[in-house]
């Protein structure tokens, strides 16, 4: 029998003979056991240079690589706060310890998607299949179809839901027999339909029956998520950044997309940390808005008053 998804072949006694995917990517049952998450150790910490009155940080270059046709590509910017590093390290522990399901939760803007993207990047560096899907507004069938496409599984366009489930089951079992690791990353599962939630327990059940070669990592704003298992193997909460971490986050912002350094007084930085409440997305928003003010009016003094005026402008107002 041939499973067209990962091009694996099985004898009548259901033993694996060869895996084309394993040959192409250099992954086999022996090497999979020795797989390690070494990419986490090589992350670079940004340099900080804070003056007494103003904050001005040297530009932190993003890592660049040579892509196809000699084009230079840059990896996405990811700032290493202790919260996010701990989250990725615990997910790496989940994968290494062969646990099945991890749930990452936290407020909007806390970095859930950034964690998944960084994790996917590191997994791909280790030649691990890691499809990333956003489950917002998806029902069960659409999530299954996107997942099947992400895993490169052949399935007819008009296949029924039961056929999709069986194709996904056969593919993951085939990969498991060949020692190929698969990590399924699902974002915004709390925004999916009630019907979609039934797919995640199915995936976690497959993970438990896959000889520890399949893991599922889901992100949600709330915990627990209705309709989804309330007892994940690992439950990870992305807490807000502390004031010191928020200051370091702002200091590292010039390294993001080659932003220009922001010249601001310490009172302005303190106001940003207070108003953002430790949410990285709000810190980025304040930084970008203050950059616009600085470029439009270089003589303007960026202090706490300016920050609070900007916060007042961007805060939603009630409509009478």
Please provide a written account of the structure:
With 320 residues, this protein is an alpha/beta fold. The chain has two domains: 2-34 and 78-237, Rossmann fold (3-Layer(aba) Sandwich), CATH 3.40.50; 241-314, Helicase, Ruva Protein, domain 3, CATH 1.10.8. It has eleven helices and ten strands. It has helices spanning 20-25, 29-33, 82-96, 112-125, 140-150, 161-177, 199-208, 243-251, 266-276, 280-296, 304-314, and strands at residues 2-3, 8-10, 16-19, 64-66, 72-74, 101-105, 132-134, 182-187, 214-220, 234-237. Strands 7-8-9-6-10 form a five-stranded parallel beta sheet, with helices on both faces. Strands 1-2-3 form a three-stranded antiparallel beta sheet. Strand 4 and strand 5 form a beta hairpin. Helix 9 (266-276) runs antiparallel to helix 10. The chain is elongated and about 65 Å long. It starts with a strand and ends in a 6-residue tail after the last helix.
What would you say about this model in short?
The chain is 39% helix and 12% strand. The protein is α/β, with parallel strands linked by helices.
Throw out a few tags for this protein.
single chain; 320 residues; alpha/beta; Rossmann fold; Helicase, Ruva Protein, domain 3; 2 domains; 5-stranded parallel beta sheet; 3-stranded antiparallel beta sheet; 11 helices; 10 strands; 12% strand; elongated; disordered N terminus
Count helical runs. 11
Write the H/E string, N to C.
EEEHHEEHEHEHHEHEEHHHH
Which structural class do you get from the secondary structure elements?
A: alpha/beta
Largest sheet: 5 strands, parallel
Number of domain modules:
2
If classified by CATH, what would the architecture of the largest domain be? 3-Layer(aba) Sandwich
CATH topology of the largest domain: Rossmann fold
Top CATH class of the largest domain: Alpha Beta
End-to-end Cα distance: 67 Å
Major sheet: arrangement of strands: 7-8-9-6-10
Mean pLDDT: 75
Corresponding CATH superfamily of the largest domain? P-loop containing nucleotide triphosphate hydrolases
Percent of sequence in beta strands = 5-15%
Provide the gyration radius in Å.
Answer: 23 Å
Write down the overall geometry: elongated
Overall helicity: 25-40%
How many strand units?
Answer: 10
The poorly predicted ranges are: 1-69, 71-76
Q: Assembly state here?
A: single chain
């Amino acid at each position: 029998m041939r499973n067209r998804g990962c091009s694996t072949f099985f004898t009548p006694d259901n033993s694996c003979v060869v895996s084309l995917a394993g040959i192409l990517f250099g992954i086999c049952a022996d090497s999979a056991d020795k797989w390690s998450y070494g990419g986490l150790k090589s992350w670079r910490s940004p340099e900080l240079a804070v003056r007494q009155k103003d904050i001005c940080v040297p530009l932190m270059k993003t890592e660049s690589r040579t892509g196809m046709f000699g084009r230079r590509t840059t990896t996405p910017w990811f700032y290493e706060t202790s919260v996010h590093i701990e989250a990725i390290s615990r997910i790496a522990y989940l994968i290494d310890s062969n646990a099945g399901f991890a749930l990452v939760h936290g407020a909007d803007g806390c970095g859930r998607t950034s964690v998944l993207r960084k994790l996917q990047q590191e997994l791909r560096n280790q030649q691990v299949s890691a499809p990333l899907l956003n489950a917002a507004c998806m029902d069960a069938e659409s999530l299954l179809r996107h997942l099947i496409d992400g895993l490169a599984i052949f399935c007819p366009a008009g296949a029924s839901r039961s056929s999709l489930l069986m194709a996904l089951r056969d593919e993951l079992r085939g990969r498991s027999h060949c020692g190929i690791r698969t990590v399924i990353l699902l974002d915004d599962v709390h925004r999916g339909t009630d019907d979609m939630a039934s797919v995640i327990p199915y995936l976690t059940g497959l993970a438990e029956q896959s000889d520890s070669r399949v893991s599922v990592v889901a992100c949600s704003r709330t915990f627990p998520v209705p309709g989804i298992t309330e007892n994940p193997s690992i439950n990870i909460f992305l807490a807000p950044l502390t004031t010191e971490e928020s200051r370091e986050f702002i200091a590292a912002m010039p390294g993001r997309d080659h932003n220009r350094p922001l010249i601001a007084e310490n009172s302005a930085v303190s106001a940003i940390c207070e108003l953002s409440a430790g949410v990285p997305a709000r810190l980025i928003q304040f930084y970008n808005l203050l950059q616009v003010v600085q470029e439009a009016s270089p003589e303007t003094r960026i202090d706490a008053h300016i920050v609070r005026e900007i916060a007042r402008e961007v805060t939603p107002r009630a409509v009478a």
